[in-house]
Amino acid sequence: MQEIKKPIQRSFLRSYLGKQYYILKRKAKWYLGKQKFAQSKSNSLYKNSIYKHKSLILRPLKDVDMYLQENKRENLRIAIQHLNQIEIKPGETFSIWRLVGKPNKQKGYLEGLVLKSGTIDKDIGGGLCQLGNLLFWVFAHSPLTIKERYRHGYDVFPDVNRKVPFGAGATLSYNHIDLQVKNETNNHFIIKLWLDKTHLNGELLSRDKIENEFSIEERNHIMKQQLWGGYSRHNQIYQLVKKENEIINERLIVENHAIMMYTPFIENKKNEK
């Protein structure tokens, strides 16, 4: 696993200008490129469920005001209206930001939790990374091809009640830090998203039945101390494709390298007590 360089603290102006450059670059790619995006919704009643997942919305976190978690629920409610029932046809690419657009006050988005350079902060539309995490996990259990995915460069919270492997998610930041998957099959897919009292729910369905089964396996997970003193965490996430309980294919879908914002071995000892 590769070494991680010590983070560089950039000025606000440089960070802002850099972000605006990448936003404009992404918009140009959207409108001038030849990529075909999934845009239409379908009311077709596909009955072949590929994978279904849910994640807890209100998650008490140390030193985080709960109103940010409540606001996250509203932000998620607004965002999923643009994604629910989207059909991903053969050759099309599903992009979260291409469908959701920029989250701002005018659209009803509220102040929510965000992570900036490894620290907890708040911003309009905060909390949508939970949507990216859930969709990544669903897509990872499907024949859709993950074309673009990013993860936080920092691991902020210890593995307390973690349901999925470290790094099995996708961070989001309008519009250049996106989650995109492409349908390189001849099948049609629909993504369903909804909220209940406690969870964000997602399900991927297909028009035609799929014989293969998909599972995820974490490999080569390590924690290490970097030469500059900080700790880092690394792993690889593989997708296993099975048919009649036999593995017929496997592929590396993501590789994670993150700076840890807590001391790993101290936390592990606390969890063992």
Defining key terms:
single chain, 273 residues, alpha+beta, 4-stranded mixed sheet, 5 helices, 13 strands, 23% helix, 34% strand, globular
Explained architecture:
With 273 residues, this protein is of the alpha+beta class. It has one domain (12-210). The chain has five helices and 13 strands. The strands form four sheets. The chain has a four-stranded antiparallel sheet with strand order 1-10-9-2. A four-stranded mixed sheet has the order 7-13-12-11, with no helix packed on it. The protein is globular. The protein starts with 11 loop residues before the first helix and ends with a helix.
Question: Gist?
Answer:
It is built from five helices and 13 strands.
> How many H/I helical runs?
5
Structural class call reads alpha+beta
What's the overall geometry?
Answer: globular
| Largest sheet: spatial strand order | 1-10-9-2
Poorly predicted segments: 266-273
Q: What is the rounded distance between the termini?
A: 30 Å
Sketch the major β-sheet. Answer: 4 strands, antiparallel
The arrangement of helices and strands along the chain is HEHEEHEEHEEEEEEEEH
Number of domains: 1
Percent in helix: 10-25%
Rg: 19 Å
**Average pLDDT score:** 90
Number of strands: 13
- Percent of residues in beta strands? 25-35%
